[in-house]
Specification:
- The longest helix is centred in the last third of the chain and has 38 residues.
- The chain has 16 helices and no strands.
- It has one domain: MFS general substrate transporter like domains (Growth Hormone, Chain: A, Up-down Bundle), CATH 1.20.1250.20.
- It is globular.
- The chain is an all-alpha fold and 418 residues long.
Amino acid sequence: MNMRGAGSVFINRHFHALTHRNYRYLWLGQCVSLVGTWMQNIGQSWLVLTITGSPLKLGFVAACQFLPILLFSLFAGIVVDKFPKKNILLVTQTVSMILAFTLATLVLTDSVKYGYIIVLAILLGLNNTLDMPTRQAFNIEIVGKEDLMNAIALNSTTFNMARIVGPSIGAVMMAWLGAGWCFLLNGFSFVAVLYGLFQIQAAPYVRKNTSRDGIMKEIKDGIVYIARDPLLAQTVLLVTVIGTLAFNFNILIPVFTKNVLHLGETTYGTLMSCLGVGSFAGALTMSFRSKQGPSVKISMIASLVVAVCLILNGLSTSVWVCGALLALTGFFNIMFATNSNSNLQMHAKEEYRARVMSVYSLVFAGSTPIGSLFAGYVADRFGANGAFVGCGVMTGILCLIIIWKYRNAAGKKELNPI
């Protein structure tokens, strides 16, 4: 067998979603864009910490960025159902590009202030409120249900490869040229994903049988549907805990680097890349096993391992130990997120899918304001070590309670998926 043939067999076996033309365009665009996104993420965190010197103020920026998702995600799910998702993504990605260029201009002209960063964070949060559930629900339109989990795993692989590459490039860029160049390159990176979206040709799913009782009735119906389904309910609750307490790395890692390790940008970028390496490995693992479908047991086990890793990280004062633990945390975080996302999309009825994914966006990203403020406050009072331990202990206790409550019902539901 020649190399080309062997490559085709490997892709068909492990990355079958890439055989769909539309998905290839979206995936390749994201490969470029997400590197820029991670450059901006670490650049913004370091910029705020440099300007203010306050972990709490850094946490407040993250809270502002995700507060709109907390407030408006449920409404976004209704909008996503009623308009072609490709058109929505063209708008949201263009807005993200404009915001990145705006922040770059402010920094490069020495005009940036903490208040300006807050405003831009809120605007980006409003934009992401619509972008996130749209991207989640768009996958099934371009790959179908059979390859959905593989597409989600590939998205996670791309996201976490960018988490490795982006912080590494961003750290060097900040050390040599300043954070402004991270934001500028991120702005240009959106050209790739916009080009990919323009090339996609897919028949859009637009829900026609919408309720005449108004948006609030539709939102209520979606929440009741989730609450009555044990597997969906357990998954959403676990995602709420993990999203709130276990994804505050943009707050804790820069504070840990600066105040515990007493090191600079390069170490910060390296630790973020360690998290990305583990996450990338987790995403690949889920991609290789995607044919087996999602399992509620993976979400349960991964959530508890993440809690233990956070506690151990809080007890660490070594760069090497911290890097290894962050890699392990990233591995199980992505296994949890990919599996949970797939569970929700594959078990939800088509007419409820966008609303279910809007709830997923709400609890996964919308809970970040609470988690960011909590992590920032604890880090401000007790240091980054105390914040890691506190988040880990609370994550473990809450996940155990949820697993115990749904120990029988969710398992039975998984055996008979929709």
